[in-house]
Structure formats: structure tokens, C-alpha cells
Specification:
Mean pLDDT: 92
Distance between the termini: 10 Å
Largest sheet: 3 strands, parallel
Number of strands: 5
CATH class of the largest domain: Alpha Beta
CATH superfamily of the largest domain: HUPs
Number of helices: 13
Number of domains: 2
Strand content: 5-15%
Structural class: mainly alpha
Order of helices and strands: EHEHHEHHHHEHEHHHHH
Strand order of the largest sheet: 1-2-3
CATH topology of the largest domain: Rossmann fold
Radius of gyration: 22 Å
CATH architecture of the largest domain: 3-Layer(aba) Sandwich
């Protein structure tokens, strides 16, 4: 099976299947993915193995979430004829690379990962998390480097994982490919390295807050299904309206004529993120600060903005929901294409590590 030559820079990103996607996913990465399809060779991974790190006892939920996310991808505008949507568990090379990369990450370095600490805190895991939970950042490195991308579109909360991937790529190239440690990052492959030192592509909103109130420490929580503070890309207009009208705003504002605080107020964070009428937002924020406009009026405006964004996606989603078999076929075709790239990477990695001891041949169905 021959892989077609594509003279485009490559990107890789994806999601752990924990249910349907929401507005935080959209501004954090999804809208970048949709916009970059024509200019990049795109690989979008559904990381279902990682879902087992916190939900190992719920395999049916994970299976359903795979279908939900794949359907959301298609509804958002990811074109499977242009981009490759793949299923992590069906890429054997990722598991093998995870084991090799684990040897290149000191345990103390792994435990300094702030994203791990945030997840342990936000999900209330305490000391009950599995070893697999600690391993999944290394698995993410393999997810990424298996496809040797030039760029990874991510949300801000994934930057720590991405930096770990960059460190492993440097160490592998230096240790096994003889790249001089003084080599500039952009020149690693030209200097003989296997893995490029990937660049991040942040979304225009680094970390979208949820619609609920703050934590006990007064910290606004990011949008998350598990925290029940999300607006989903599949929400019907009435659901959007109910969620927005119940949105947390300025707790010290009792009447529309009271001066209000715009900073760290989810209502205005959302207007700034999603409302294309910048002039209205600026004027309304000034009125809000002076007590000249009420929460209800501003929320109704936000409802209109969000419904206009979400409704076309929801309508497309309904088309794919009527034929889930086609969604699974998209995953099958994309995963088969992705395996060609990942197997090539694994072969090159083993050659560099002097572990290409026996021939290897795997067949994947398109």
C-alpha cells in the first residue's frame, strides 16, 4: 500500500473521548483545525486508550464517547476526504513507542507536570489514581511523535504535555541520531534527527471558563463536562438559552442599575470570545461597569450569538447521527491511513535505536 506524497506541513492533535465536545474545545483547538485543513496535512486522534486512565470501569461509555467525538468532528467541519481522523487504540505503533519514550522521561520530571496536578485536584482523584494515569502523558508524547508533525494545535492546558514531547524529541534525536545538543530546534531534522521539535498553535482563547461559579478558592473553573458547566456544540437552542440565562456573573450585582465587574466575569469572557460585534461588546461593557445595562439583556444577546454559531453544527450532526455506520467507516479509513505513517515512524525509531532485529509486516484494512 503506497502512501501518497503530500507536500504540506503536518499537524497532529486530538481529544480524549469523555463525551460530546463543547465551546471550550471549539475556541481552544477545533476552529484552528477546521481552518488549517487546506494548508496542512492533518491528523486528528481520538485517544480512547487515555480515557481508561480515569474510567477503566466504564468501557461502554468510552466506546460511545468515541462515536460522539467522531460525529462532533464531522459536524464541526472536519472533512474526512482532506483530513485523517484516527482511533488511538488501533495504532499498534503508539503503544510500542510509549514504552520506549517512557525510558527517556525521568519520574521526577513527569510529576512536575502542572496539568497532571490540576487534573488530580479538579477530578478529586486524591491518591487513588492508577499508574496508567501517570503514564498517559508519555502516551501523549507517542500520540504526537508517531506522526512527526510540524505543529500541534492545542489549548493552553495542554502546553505542559507539549513541552514534554519537545523534550523527548530532543533527547531521542541527540541520543540515537547523533544530533548536537546545540542545534536550533528548527534544524533538528535537517541535522539528522528523526523527530521534529514541534511547535504549538494556541487557540485564540487559551482557557475558556465554564458557565458555573468559581471554586471554593475563588478560582474560575475551565469548561468541562465533568464539572457540569459546559455548553455543548450539539446543544439545542433552548438548552443554550437555559444555560446562558443561568450563567454565573458578578455575584455583588443585585440590580441592573448596580455597577458591575467585567473582569473575570464569565458573561463578558463569553462575549469577548464569541460575539463578532466588537463595537457592541465594548459599548455594553462600559454600560455594565456604570450600571447602565442589565445581566438579562446581555445574556439574551449572548444566546443569539451562541445559537448562530452552534446551530449549523447541530444540524450537520443530525445528518451523521442518522448513519452512525458511516462515522465508523470514516474512522476505519482514517485509522488505516494513519497506521502507514505510524509504522514508518516506528521502523525508523527502531533503526535509530539499533533494535530493527527482525522484519515486521502489518496489514490494515481500508
Amino acid at each position: 500500500m503506497n502512501q501518497p506524497t503530500i507536500n504540506k506541513p503536518r499537524i497532529l492533535t486530538g481529544d480524549t473521548p469523555t463525551g460530546r465536545l463543547h465551546l471550550g474545545h471549539w475556541v481552544g483547538s477545533l476552529e484552528n483545525r477546521v481552518a488549517m485543513q487546506s494548508s496542512y496535512e492533518c491528523f486528528f486522534i481520538i485517544a480512547n486508550v487515555h480515557a481508561f486512565t480515569t474510567r477503566a470501569e466504564r468501557p461502554e461509555d468510552i466506546r460511545q464517547s468515541v462515536l460522539e467525538i467522531a460525529t462532533d468532528y464531522l459536524a464541526c467541519g472536519i472533512d474526512p476526504n482532506v483530513s485523517t481522523i484516527l482511533l488511538q487504540s488501533e495504532i499498534p505503533a503508539i503503544a510500542e513507542l510509549t514504552f520506549f519514550f517512557a525510558m527517556l522521561v525521568p519520574f521526577a520530571r513527569l510529576m512536575r507536570n502542572p496539568t497532571l496536578k490540576d487534573e488530580i485536584r479538579d477530578k478529586g482523584l486524591g491518591d487513588s489514581y492508577s499508574f496508567g494515569f501517570l503514564l498517559y502523558p508519555v502516551g501523549q508524547i507517542a500520540d504526537i511523535l508517531a506522526f512527526r508533525p510540524d505543529m500541534v494545535p492545542v489549548g493552553e492546558d495542554q502546553m505542559a504535555h507539549l513541552e514534554l514531547s519537545r523534550e523527548v524529541a530532543r533527547r531521542f534525536d541527540q541520543m540515537y541520531c547523533g544530533v548536537d545538543p546545540q542545534t536550533p530546534d528548527k534544524e533538528y531534522v535537517a541535522a539528522g534527527g528523526l523527530f521534529p521539535i514541534i511547535e504549538p498553535k494556541l487557540g485564540r482563547v487559551k482557557r475558556l471558563v465554564g458557565i458555573g461559579g468559581p471554586s471554593e478558592e475563588g478560582r474560575l473553573l475551565k469548561m468541562s463536562k465533568s464539572l457540569n458547566n459546559a455548553i455543548f456544540l450539539s446543544d439545542e437552542p433552548d438548552a443554550v438559552r437555559k444555560k446562558v440565562m443561568a450563567m454565573y456573573t458578578d455575584p455583588n450585582r443585585k440590580r441592573a442599575t448596580d455597577p458591575g465587574t467585567v473582569e473575570n466575569n464569565p458573561l463578558w469572557i463569553f462575549h469577548e470570545a464569541f460575539n463578532p460585534d466588537v463595537h457592541w461588546v465594548q459599548e455594553a461593557e462600559a454600560k455594565y461597569r456604570a450600571g447602565g445595562i442589565g445581566d438579562v439583556e446581555c445574556k439574551k444577546k449572548l444566546v443569539d450569538v451562541l445559537v448562530n454559531l452552534i446551530e449549523p453544527m447541530r444540524q450537520r450532526r443530525q445528518t451523521f447521527e442518522r448513519d452512525p455506520g458511516e462515522v465508523w467507516r470514516v474512522l476505519q479509513r482514517g485509522t488505516a491511513r494513519a497506521n502507514i505513517i505510524a509504522e514508518e515512524t516506528l521502523l525508523k525509531a527502531k533503526e535509530a535505536m539499533r533494535q530493527d532485529l527482525l522484519p515486521r509486516s502489518l496489514a490494515f484494512n481500508l
